[in-house]
Amino acid sequence: MPQLPDDLDAVAVRTWCSLALEALGRERAEIDAINVYPIADGDTGTNLYLTVESAAAAVEAVFAAHETGATAPATADAVRAMAHGALIGARGNSGTILAQLLRGMAGVLADGGDAAHLRLALTSAADAARQAVAHPVEGTVLTVAAEAAQAARGEEPDLRTVVTAAYEGARAALARTPEQLAVLGQAGVVDAGGRGLVAVLGALVETVTGQAPVRGPRTASGNAAKAPVTVDGGSVVGLPVGGTPVQGVTEGGLPASAPVEGPLDCPEDGSAGPAFEVIYLLEARDEQVARLRTRLDALGDSLVVVGGDGLWHVHVHVDDAGAAVEAGVEAGRPYRIRITHFATESGHDVRVQAEPAQRAVVVVVPGDGLAGLCTEAGATTVIARPGEPPASGELVDAIRRAHAREVVLLPNDAALRHTAAAAAEQARTEGVRVALVPTRAAVQGIAALAVHEPDRGFDEDVVAMTAAAGATRYAELAVAERQSWTMAGICQAGDILGLIDGDVAVIGADVPGTARTVLDRMLAAGGELVTLVLGEDVPDALADALEEHVREGHLAVDTVVYRGGHQRAPLLIGVE
Known about the structure:
- The protein has 18 helices and 20 strands.
- The chain is of the alpha+beta class.
- The protein has a six-stranded mixed sheet with strand order 17-16-13-20-18-19, sandwiched between helices. The chain has a four-stranded antiparallel sheet with strand order 4-5-3-6, with helices on both faces. A four-stranded parallel sheet has the order 10-9-11-12, sandwiched between helices.
- Helices cover 46% and strands 19% of the residues.
- The protein has helices spanning 10-33, 44-65, 75-89, 92-109, 115-132, 141-153, 159-180, 182-187, 192-209, 286-299, 321-331, 368-376, 392-402, 417-429, 442-450, 458-470, 511-523, 540-553, and strands at residues 229-231, 235-237, 276-283, 300-308, 311-318, 333-341, 344-345, 348-349, 357-365, 380-383, 404-410, 433-436, 473-479, 484-486, 489-491, 496-500, 503-508, 529-535, 558-565, 571-575.
- Strand 9, helix 12 (368-376) and strand 10 (380-383) form a beta-alpha-beta unit.
- The protein is globular and about 75 Å long.
């Protein structure tokens, strides 16, 4: 049994991030299903998961930098990395608030990880999150965070006692959220963001005690409250805290009488909110951010601005997305700009009212070159730019734009599995039949799209596309950023890595030589068609050389070449 920590050192922080990610992965679908505030867009669980995923990756990077050293990273380095990772990877309203909670904790835990510091950290986190929200509302994650901090303040300075008290306080607060926020009470669910925070604090309990806590909210009397449960083959429905089933509950966790066609935004009367969610990172001075808050507050609602030390994460719901971005330009340098259309106006669906097509394909592509190729093939595309994977809201918007009764969704990235699943679930609640083909690379998506036939039966089409994708092995070339252990040995910064089916298989000195080695390894198991997708800066001469290499060494194997445009990898390879 691993030794339990006496304080939150770097190893404990790493464990906490890992367990929090696992917990949110397990509960993501249920949290998405009860997401009715501030927007009923069904992605709170996914956004929290992706935010913590970014935080955990940042902590892992700190440990990777110490692989060759004799000592573990300092606690301050780990908690600051956690906070920074959450800040740059925050998704949605809930993820942005969670990032500020972690930042508030990190500011205190950097000075010490004992019980006394943890109590101060929880208070600092709750205060920082509340200050980041333009118009705080009770019955949300802000209330849950505040009650967790309050519960921890009165405990003896023992780490396990403090952590457990905070968790139990959060559970009790979560159970009360339907009484504090009318839209939650009407839907018969607890606050989705608050439930996510309970999962994160539960992971902290497991980190310091070695035991997973009881899941779900608590009643004021201390008993476990009824939480959303899974029924009917995986559909999630809401049960109110009192334990009486809500009559006529939809898959999204809303009562059948509740309006599900439009968002439930900040106004508690159920009136429709703004049309767009705008998110971006911003490099700006503090005084500029203060003015930015005032301007964005006048433009829309659900305004959350978190960060500090020159780097900020901005989230707002507005009708004029351009004005929100322009305000960021005037304040500093915005980047990683993400705009999601809620597809509503004044509570009414504004999608094209023409008769929908029977079937469409929505595909995520890594560059504009493949976007053009897939568009020509009739697909609706979503571009995943380097370092900017699409959010579930963007995928839902693409499904809506496809305007079809049936949609095949090709995420083309293993890391998008949760995001794509959340988008598919949301689209199904809107009456669209969605099949998710778990493509893990763009070349698998190309193979699936090549066999797509909209005139045959939906199930038959999905099976054929899935089979084509599964029969396509995939590889990509990447540049190593630092010295690291891989399955192929130790690589140095600047080495060219050849990844086959997601694992490093080849370490080379240049792109052409590494590409040839990767092709030979892949074709050793057979193949009929090689697909090469060239990055923006890769010369055509490389494609010519690789085509010749395939012809000389592998008879009867054809090669097709595409230009991928601005994509993360210089070269993508598929073998069918």
